[in-house]
Write the structure tokens for this entry.
Amino acid sequence: MNQHPNQHKEHSAEVHIVSYREHASTFLALILLTVMTVTVSVFGADLYTLTVLTALAIASAKAVVVGLYFMHLKYDPKIYKAMMAVVLILFTVFLILTLIDYLIRP
Amino acid sequence: MDTTFVLPNSGHNRDDVSSKLGMWLFLFTELLLFGGLFLVYMVYRFIYHEAFLHASYDLNVWFGGVNTVVLLTSSMTVAMSITAMQKGDILLSKRLLWLTILAAGIFLVIKAFEWSAKFSHGLFPGMEHYSTLPNGERLFFFLYFFMTGLHALHVIVGAIILLVVINAIGKNRVRQDKYMFLENGGLYWHLVDLIWIYLFPLFYLIH
Amino acid sequence: MSTTAANADLSFFQVARGIRSWIFTLDHKRIALLYFYSIVTFFLVGVILGFLMRLELIAPGKTVMEPHTYNQVFTLHGVIMIFLFIIPVVPAIFGNFFLPIMLGTDDVSFPKLNLLSWYLYIFGGALALLTLVVGEGPADTGWTFYAPYSVKTGTNVSIAVLAAFILGFSSILTGLNFIVTIHRLRYPGMTFFKMPLFAWGLYATSWIQVLATPIVGITLLMIVAERAFGVGLFDPSIGGDPILYQHLFWIYSHPAVYIMVLPAMGIISEIIPTFSQRTIFGYKAIAYSSLAIAFVGYFVWGHHMFTSGMSGPARIVFSILTFLVAIPSAIKVFNWVATMYKGSIEVQPPLLYAMAFIFQFLIGGLTGLVNGALAADVHIHDTYFVVGHFHYVMFGGTAFAFFGGLHYWFPKIWGKMYNIRRANIAFTLMFIGFNVLYFPMLILGIMGMPRRYYDYLPEFQPLNVISTVGSWILILGLIMMIINFIQGYRKGKTASQNPWGGVTLEWQTKSPPPLQNFHKAPEVSEHGPYDFK
């Protein structure tokens, strides 16, 4: 939480520049994960729940990479990560509570 | 009597941090907007998992996969565009933005191709074949069109925003010392990529 | 607008004149008043609809309207009162006007977005009214638009739902604006824990506005899509689950009630210290409880669906969570009362409304717990007990807090004072009228009278008559309050800068404030916002 008055000097020399190389590495990691998920799906077995969970896990890994690196969350003030975490927790609880209804219906 | 009085933290000053914070808050709303649809998807996939599996065979993994790669590439180009701007390489920054928009175009073309294939099979809600499908499959295709459609709308909007950014760079309103608009445009674009990252496995990789 | 050249001798009213200076303003104070006039107008339409409903219910059978019309009236009453009145009333009016001033700044973070929020409000409101005059008339589904009926009925559901969608955007943008404003524009020295509690209430509310509203947005779009394409998302006859609609709807609409009440509680936290002339008891507890209510409030939505067909475990989980969310609310009530204890109490209209709030919110909150208890809810769900409950919290709570805020901040906004004696009489009428109107509903509900019913068994009539008479007393009080304000505006005595002895920053500036809010640098006390020396 920002307790200082906003000042222009916040903006001057402190800018963190992500190199082209780092962006390219991020991209490669994402491609790798994509290949993984397609491979598991096309050539893997039908494991129902495990299939979904694996796919979601890989997708989430990609999302985290995009968020942390492309969207700069890794280098931003912690508050952005905190807010993102709250949003994710919220949404996850929505899914869980709703699932509690559907999973245990007679 | 004219008293001049300036509040140091005025809402009328330029404040890049506010701008970024505001953009993130807006992204949260978009995440939750799509979140509602993902919730619906989760429920109906749980109830109709056989039908969802069966219906998903109609989708082509390779088209979906190529589109995924296209969007990931576009995320890289827009991120690099910001790097270029930060380093003062205005020309490269604009070129990377054009590449991003090109990627958006490719994505939409592939999507249009996929959709028209479905139309020709009568699979859109309201069409002949669609109405003969069992319930679970109808729900699958409705969600497919609704979610990829809403996503495509966001791709279009994102591309337009980036066009506006390019224009602003041309008019020197986005520059090395003032590029929040470009950063925010990039953030919006990454959101578009993020949503597809989840849409892809949930619709194309069910088995 | 240049902050360096504005003349601080002029009030914000005087710096520009004419309708264009209002419709295109970027000044948060003018935007607040634009909202004020539009919201009050819609409120009065909602009151008239409520008046007609009570008239119909004074006797069993048909009294003044047909059954189908009655369904449309209570639907429109709900849509207007919830989306056009209660949700925006405190944030859009007092939040817009006073948040920047209380924080010691000259405007919100995004003034243009603020104006857009108002435009969206007007557009949404116009669409809602449009349903009255086109096609088969206003929706008759209840403001909750439950599927499958909402998908099948021929009334103007799509337009009503699109209106709600647009109003949702208005709400989201306001919340977004306030969050950034609070994070970035506090005066030097004003940490988060030196902000007035009204700002804390708005902060918690804004997070709900931003995070919960999109879910109802997409749900409403699904209703439109289903009406257009007949997919079967929520239609059981073709494989859909109507309970899924309810999940989606209430995931927003329950947090929405905290959007309604948190800012109102913020007003009470401002009024009580001023009229007790001492600092609030338990500042941090109240601040944290606002966040706690917002957070836990996201997870209780299933208590609207106990009798719909959810699984047993789901019902138990939601019931437990519902009981948890009552705790931070109770903390606030205790702290307000503790603030008054041994304070230097001055009974003025704002305090009357604040005390009425505490009394009525207590009844509303306790009846909420009754609703939240699984076994009891089976008996009272969809009865008049629920109607009584939510009117106690929303009207007896939020609306009364709004009226209290009006009486509190009227002199600051308009620089005039209203007639205190008439304000007290109007309050008395409203307090009596309100309780006579709504308390019988709690009894009727336990006796078994269903809600949203046009007709009822003869044994329910006596209490219905009492309730309707209560509505007349209440409306009399409302009219008197409104006339008193209008007369105060036109002919009232000039108000001093600080007629009530408040110590938050708005009392350091002129009445009405100048364009950029202050004529000299605001002084932020190091002892916190309620520094009564």
Chain B has a mean pLDDT of 94. Chain B is about 80% helix and 0% strand. Chain B touches chain C through 42 residues (CB under 8 Å).
